[in-house]
TrEMBL record:
Residues 13-237 form the ABC transporter domain. GO terms for molecular function: ATP binding. Gene3D superfamilies: P-loop containing nucleotide triphosphate hydrolases. Pfam families: ABC_tran. Keywords: ATP-binding, Nucleotide-binding, Transport. Signal peptide: none annotated. This is Hydroxymethylpyrimidine transport system ATP-binding protein. SMART domains: AAA.
């Protein structure tokens, strides 16, 4: 169970009437979305439709000139509530796995015996026992990405924004990391951008398909059963073909 330091329930996120242009081209025009608190929402859509930009809006990126509102829970902005993970979350080459996982706490001057114990617990839960004092060069790509996931989880923020976190991994490692992520983020509000409909069906309580110009919501889905779902389960296979078709139609929308 995910245990954010802040005792409050993980908030929902509401994007209301978002409009944003890049170089005179409208990316979003009066876009509204609601994402459930304590749930994992997977966002799918064609390349360039604005998925990463949406995540950046939720993260409170200061350099985006937009109108509309991004609200967390009953009010307020989210920048202090979010942790971020992308596919390029390289570990610093000179830090051991343990120090990488503890990096945020160290930078904020918050290192404590409890934090160290939590880091060790996460490392063990992720199947990395014995690698605590290894540098990234001694870890496989999948192990490094597990380290990046643990570093994100150590932030103990109620909202976790993930931008294609598993896309650079081989199929087997990806499934393992998806399962680990689902297990360790129970209770958090997770927004996961992915290109992979199977990943969305395995991990999402909710799935949002975006498409068109300016981008709009083409479809929302709520697959049955708790994530992570088995790739071969009826909940997943029953929705896969339709979701793929929706995405392909969205490319042309
Ligand atoms: N800072 C910026 N300045 C100008 N244009 C930008 C900027 N950031 C993004 N864009 C443009 O906005 C569009 C959406 O970009 P974004 O990265 O959000 O898309 P995406 O759906 O995440 O794409 P992908 O799936 O390929 O990662 C793209 O056309 C991109 O070139």
């Amino acid at each position: 169970m995910y245990a954010p330091a802040t005792a409050q329930a993980a908030p929902g996120i509401a994007l209301e009437g978002i409009s944003l242009d890049f170089e005179g081209r409208p990316l979003f025009a009066d876009l509204s979305l609601t994402l459930g608190g304590g749930r994992t929402t997977c966002i799918l859509g064609p390349s360039g439709c604005g998925k990463s930009t949406l995540l950046k809006l939720m993260a409170g990126a200061p350099n985006l000139d937009f109108s509309g509102q991004v609200r967390f829970g009953s009010g307020g902005t989210g920048s202090t509530q979010v942790a971020w993970m992308s596919q390029n979350d390289l570990l610093l080459p000179w830090l051991t796995l343990r120090d990488s996982v503890l990096l945020g706490a160290r930078l904020r001057g918050e290192l404590s015996p409890e934090k160290r114990a939590r880091a060790l617990e996460l490392i063990h839960e992720a199947g990395l026992a014995g690698y605590e004092d290894k540098l990234p060069e001694a870890l496989s790509g999948g192990m490094r990405q597990r380290g990046a996931l643990l570093r994100t989880l150590m932030e103990e923020r109620p909202v976790i924004l993930m931008d294609e976190p598993f896309s650079a991994l081989d199929a087997l490692t990806r499934v393992r990391l998806q399962n680990l992520s689902a297990r360790l983020t129970v209770g958090a509000t997770v927004v996961l951008v992915t290109h992979d409909p199977m990943e969305a069906l395995r991990l999402g309580h909710d799935i949002i398909v975006l498409g068109g110009t300016p981008v709009r919501v083409l479809e929302t889905m709520e697959p049955a059963g708790p994530p992570p779902r088995e790739a071969g389960s009826s909940e997943v296979t029953g929705l896969y073909a339709g979701l793929l078709r929706r995405l392909m139609n969205g490319e042309a929308a």
